[in-house]
Amino acid sequence: MNVNAKPTPPRRAFIVASMANSAALLSATVVSPSTLFAATPSQALTGPASVPNNRSLAALMLEYAAGAVVQTGRVQIQIASLVDNGNSVPIDVSVTSPMTATDHVVSIAIFNEKNPEHQVAEFILSPQSGRALVATRIRLAMTQKIIALAKMQDGTCWMESVDVLVTLAACIEE
Q1: Which domains, from first to last, does the chain contain?
Q2: Is the whole model's pTM more than 0.90, yes or no?
């Protein structure tokens, strides 16, 4: 024992004990996504149904198209058809468009079929974008269909879909 050691002041001991208790309390608190995205505190207790994006894929795509008839063509998706790991999958979406003030892509959205959140991303474009090309990385829960929709300045909506085979899934809580 060190004879020259000073006893710990009571104030310092209280602060250290308070910090330890606070850390223990915070580590015991579990916050689920349904709690974070709940609109009201009572909805936080109702479970996954309170997560705002529990609508169907078809409903989300119709909402994005805003009443326009969705046509196939003009949109190209570049993604591997066989993915070893669904945690980070590169995807490129391009749209055939001159990107002028009178004819350009307004936005591009990426949807998926089986992830918990169906709308993966939405990109806003303008004629100043130069090219209608977006690239990102997405997580894929399992083998599924990927859909890209492009909204044009004239109100039309174009799409393409591809099937992706995922060998190691992501986004799934077990």
Answers
A1: 10-49 (no CATH), 55-168 (2.60.40.2470)
A2: no
